[in-house]
Amino acid sequence: MREKTNFLVFGQPLIEEPEIAEVVSSLRAAWPGTGPKVSHFEELVREYKGVKHAIAVSSCTAGLHLGCIALDLQPGDEVITTPLTFCATVNAIIHAGGTPVLADIDPETLNIKPEEICKKINSRTKALLPVHFAGRPCEMSEIMALAQQHGLRVIEDCAHAIETVYHGSHAGTFGDCGVLSFYSTKNVTTGEGGMVLTNDDSLAAWLRLMSQQGVTTNAWQRLSGGNYRHYDVAEIGFKYNMMDLQAAIGIHQLKRVEKCWKRRQEIWNRYTQAFDDLPIQLPSEPSSETRHALHLYTILIDKKTCSVSRDEFLVRLHHDNIGVGVHYRQIADHSAYRRRFGWRPEQWPNAEKVSQQTVSLPLSPKLSDSDVHDVIDSVRKALKPRRPRRSSYVTVLNSEGQ
Questions:
Q1: C-alpha neighbours within 13 Å on the C-beta side of residue 222
Q2: Are 201 and 212 in contact (CB under 8 A)?
Q3: What is the pTM of this model?
Q4: Domain boundaries along the sequence of the chain
Q5: CATH of 17-255, one of 3.30.1490.20, 3.40.50.1370, 3.40.640.10, 3.30.420.10
Q6: What is the pLDDT of residues 9-55, one digit of tens each?
């Protein structure tokens, strides 16, 4: 293996000249805030996802929060979600006044399991919040059937799933709303940002109003026309709007979404072929009639079969200058939720196992063929037995955001 002198940062986005030029044009126009480029980006996403409304927001977290507020949760109301997710999913429920309830995952797909959801539904359940983990669609037919049977609302966390399709329909278009993430590591990025998708006209109008402080017209609408229009504060809203500077990046990112997906597919296939003989669990094959967004390539490292723990594996790759991610430490591993809800990780055994073994390998379209070669060589080398190091401790940060 050739020596790699530069650290390969996990999840770096591919930013090209059209994005840079578009951002510069917004700066030259002296209009960096919410304006025409946000509207244009919303229209592009709306068309791509095949949905009636797309409302740009400052982050996926903001979109999830608004979606949960729209549920009008009262004290004691419960929302069922997965334990294998970023904290934003659970935080949105809590901040909206609800109580998160965790249902275990399928150990193969790593998505929330409909049978586990069914076990958690009771008279206090108000909504379901499935997460399309790594870009693989949840079993939405079964989830929507449960929702209809019990009169529940559905919010889809599509942070990993802009390209995801389930039985001919895009992820984010099944429930009351779906929420995309454009964080810097995502398949389409705006640096920070998100988008709420919905086919409900009244919900779309409310989401747009609430994302802009409850103000009826934004600054671009008030100031760019021939006549000044006074605004009204119709609701007590939030500062959750996206800026034109962000949308300027997203416009061109979305234009290359298919090209970048195909590049990630090439890398995905190279990994699968290269690791086929290793004693690790590889991502399961996408189900028929679905499209996997290929956002994360996650492998599971079991010390019993690999002779190395997951954390020691992370250390070895970092020593080889290969950046990796952990998606995720399950929610019940975190002290804030254990204190508040008394959760214990062993309550969700499938999520607990994955949480202790999972590693996400670099999968950005920015990776060169030599970068991919380096990752493959490092993984194979790291799984060979080694003499223990005198000091092998490293702090591994979860390189994720919504």
A1: 10
A2: no
A3: 0.93
A4: 17-255, 257-382
A5: 3.40.640.10
A6: 999 999 999 999 999 999 999 888 899 999 999 999 999 999 999 99
Catalytic residues: 186
Take residue 215 and report the two structure tokens written for it: 């103000």
Pull the structure tokens for residue 331. Answer: 């929610």
Q: For 61-107, what is each residue's pLDDT tens digit? A: 999 999 999 999 999 999 999 999 999 999 999 999 999 999 999 99
Residues 78-107: b if buried by 16+ CB within 10 A, e if exposed: bbbbbbbbbbbbbbbbbebebbbbbbbbbe
